[in-house]
Amino acid sequence: MSILVIAEHDHGSLKGATHHTVTAALACGGEVHVLVAGHNAGEAAKQAAQIPGVAKVLHADSAALAEQLAENVAAQVLAVAGSYSHILFPATAHGKNTAPRVAAKLDVAQISDITKVVSADTFERPIYAGNAIATVQSADKVKVITVRTTGFDAAATSGGSAAVESIAAVDDAGSSSFVGREVTKSDRPELTAAKIIVSGGRALGSSDKFNEVLTPLADKLGAALGASRAAVDAGYAPNDWQVGQTGKIVAPQLYIAAGISGAIQHLAGMKDSKVIVAINKDPEAPIFSVADYGLEADLFEAVPELVKSL
Amino acid sequence: MKALVAVKRVVDYNVKVRVKSDGTGVDIANVKMSMNPFDEIAVEEATRLKEKGVVSEIVAVSCGVAQCQETLRTAMAIGADRAILVETDAELQPLAVAKLLKAVVDKEQPQLIILGKQAIDDDCNQTGQMLAALLDRPQGTFASKVEVADGVAVVTREVDGGLETVKLQLPAIVTTDLRLNEPRYVTLPNIMKAKKKPLDVLKPADLGVDVAPRLKTLKVAEPPKRGAGVKVPDVATLVSKLKNEAKVI
């Protein structure tokens, strides 16, 4: 039984999500291989080889894989899929884009966002915005899975010494092409990997206030900034800061929710945080039901005071 | 150009669901059901493309129990021209739905197929991608902007680091993200008109699709409860609790 992990990388280096996925793969119990599909991604392949527990790294290099288009990456995975019992992707935008394509071509069900490996064919996954946990068993010959990265610890980045094997790259499918990318610039820790997250909601009132009030706190704590859907929809924060069922799922050591009421959809994205702090004017806000520490106060006064006392 | 939109009937997003005490599933008897929010966005987008003159006909499709007809009527009240229900009482998983939709697509030959990015009940986020794979067509998932012209769809996608734009040869599959548009409210006259629009009912067997579930749900449990928290009176107490009790800063 061998297991394939599809690496997420930016060619030059592996993304943290890959390391979490390797941990899930090792829990399935078998020989773990990592596929690095990209263009000039030799560095990422080398990093994958250094993860302890990884037995082999498959490296496919082609211009067709440069932009990680789902059509081409899925074809690349399918080219090697034959010899694996499990194929695991991180449950990131990229993994979610590609994994179901692979599963459908193999005519197997895909198991989304697993949070626990019970056994080689049985997994736990949250449903209904995390309000229920389903234990599902797959009878398919190949298990195609996406892994919720906050459900598994990251594998170590060094200590392993797997062989890197070059494999033939697939041709460009030709039905889609990459046009451009607009990356949100940030020198803060990545939201999904941050130890501390400071998150703001609609109560901030404007984009300027959002930055003015929350940035000093995030700077002080070395935290990533997050936002509720209401704050994102109102244009106070960029889309990719959204925490929740349809945004990012995070589980930091400390999550500070400022001016967030705590709708079901938002809680789905952060309720596995170790410590949750809520700062809200409304004593009835549902966020207080999950907060370890609740401060009933006007955030425009409380947050600057908090910055000062740190 | 014909557009096909897939819609799902799900527990309303405002309902806090309860897990059944025997662990067999979530209790959805007597719970308010609605159209999956992402699917509303999909129907809205198709309707806007029709209003722009890009799309000439919109076909809404749903798979599931007879009550899904209500969901299809809602789609027609937003702007779909006609509807198809693939009726079955069986549990449908994304692969089965993708196969049913493929069969409908083969019959209808739409150029553009729009789905929501995920259903808020099973949270799978698979069906659109699976349909694209089965049809061997390109996909534009998590779309926040769609432009269709000259046999090509240009789709801006929400990805982890920001936005990404891809160009897809039609026919193509697009799945909607939250910020693609704001669905309109359905008006009473449009609800009345939707009652007169055609709604065909098919069975999975008519389409030659085996819908047997591939995954077996062994049990459904409540998520672990968080311990009760405390309210702190002021910022100083909060800081001292975080430092000394929780030791997170």
From TrEMBL, chain A:
<feature type="binding site">
    <location>
        <position position="202"/>
    </location>
    <ligand>
        <name>FAD</name>
    </ligand>
</feature>
<dbReference type="Pfam" id="PF01012">
    <property type="entry name" value="ETF"/>
</dbReference>
<dbReference type="GO" id="GO:0050660">
    <property type="term" value="F:flavin adenine dinucleotide binding"/>
</dbReference>
<dbReference type="InterPro" id="IPR014729">
    <property type="entry name" value="Rossmann-like_a/b/a_fold"/>
</dbReference>
<feature type="binding site">
    <location>
        <begin position="228"/>
        <end position="229"/>
    </location>
    <ligand>
        <name>FAD</name>
    </ligand>
</feature>
<dbReference type="InterPro" id="IPR018206">
    <property type="entry name" value="ETF_asu_C_CS"/>
</dbReference>
<keyword id="KW-0813">Transport</keyword>
<dbReference type="InterPro" id="IPR029035">
    <property type="entry name" value="DHS-like_NAD/FAD-binding_dom"/>
</dbReference>
<protein>
    <recommendedName>
        <fullName>Electron transfer flavoprotein subunit alpha</fullName>
    </recommendedName>
</protein>
<comment type="subunit">
    <text>Heterodimer of an alpha and a beta subunit.</text>
</comment>
<keyword id="KW-0285">Flavoprotein</keyword>
<keyword id="KW-0274">FAD</keyword>
<feature type="domain" description="Electron transfer flavoprotein alpha/beta-subunit N-terminal">
    <location>
        <begin position="3"/>
        <end position="182"/>
    </location>
</feature>
<dbReference type="Pfam" id="PF00766">
    <property type="entry name" value="ETF_alpha"/>
</dbReference>
<feature type="binding site">
    <location>
        <begin position="259"/>
        <end position="266"/>
    </location>
    <ligand>
        <name>FAD</name>
    </ligand>
</feature>
<dbReference type="GO" id="GO:0009055">
    <property type="term" value="F:electron transfer activity"/>
</dbReference>
<feature type="binding site">
    <location>
        <position position="280"/>
    </location>
    <ligand>
        <name>FAD</name>
    </ligand>
</feature>
<dbReference type="GO" id="GO:0033539">
    <property type="term" value="P:fatty acid beta-oxidation using acyl-CoA dehydrogenase"/>
</dbReference>
<dbReference type="InterPro" id="IPR014730">
    <property type="entry name" value="ETF_a/b_N"/>
</dbReference>
<comment type="function">
    <text>The electron transfer flavoprotein serves as a specific electron acceptor for other dehydrogenases. It transfers the electrons to the main respiratory chain via ETF-ubiquinone oxidoreductase (ETF dehydrogenase).</text>
</comment>
<dbReference type="InterPro" id="IPR001308">
    <property type="entry name" value="ETF_a/FixB"/>
</dbReference>
<dbReference type="InterPro" id="IPR033947">
    <property type="entry name" value="ETF_alpha_N"/>
</dbReference>
TrEMBL record, chain B:
<dbReference type="GO" id="GO:0009055">
    <property type="term" value="F:electron transfer activity"/>
</dbReference>
<comment type="subunit">
    <text>Heterodimer of an alpha and a beta subunit.</text>
</comment>
<protein>
    <recommendedName>
        <fullName>Electron transfer flavoprotein subunit beta</fullName>
    </recommendedName>
</protein>
<dbReference type="InterPro" id="IPR033948">
    <property type="entry name" value="ETF_beta_N"/>
</dbReference>
<dbReference type="InterPro" id="IPR000049">
    <property type="entry name" value="ET-Flavoprotein_bsu_CS"/>
</dbReference>
<feature type="domain" description="Electron transfer flavoprotein alpha/beta-subunit N-terminal">
    <location>
        <begin position="23"/>
        <end position="211"/>
    </location>
</feature>
<dbReference type="InterPro" id="IPR012255">
    <property type="entry name" value="ETF_b"/>
</dbReference>
<comment type="similarity">
    <text>Belongs to the ETF beta-subunit/FixA family.</text>
</comment>
<dbReference type="InterPro" id="IPR014729">
    <property type="entry name" value="Rossmann-like_a/b/a_fold"/>
</dbReference>
<dbReference type="GO" id="GO:0046395">
    <property type="term" value="P:carboxylic acid catabolic process"/>
</dbReference>
<comment type="function">
    <text>The electron transfer flavoprotein serves as a specific electron acceptor for other dehydrogenases. It transfers the electrons to the main respiratory chain via ETF-ubiquinone oxidoreductase (ETF dehydrogenase).</text>
</comment>
<dbReference type="InterPro" id="IPR014730">
    <property type="entry name" value="ETF_a/b_N"/>
</dbReference>
<dbReference type="Pfam" id="PF01012">
    <property type="entry name" value="ETF"/>
</dbReference>
<keyword id="KW-0249">Electron transport</keyword>
<keyword id="KW-0813">Transport</keyword>
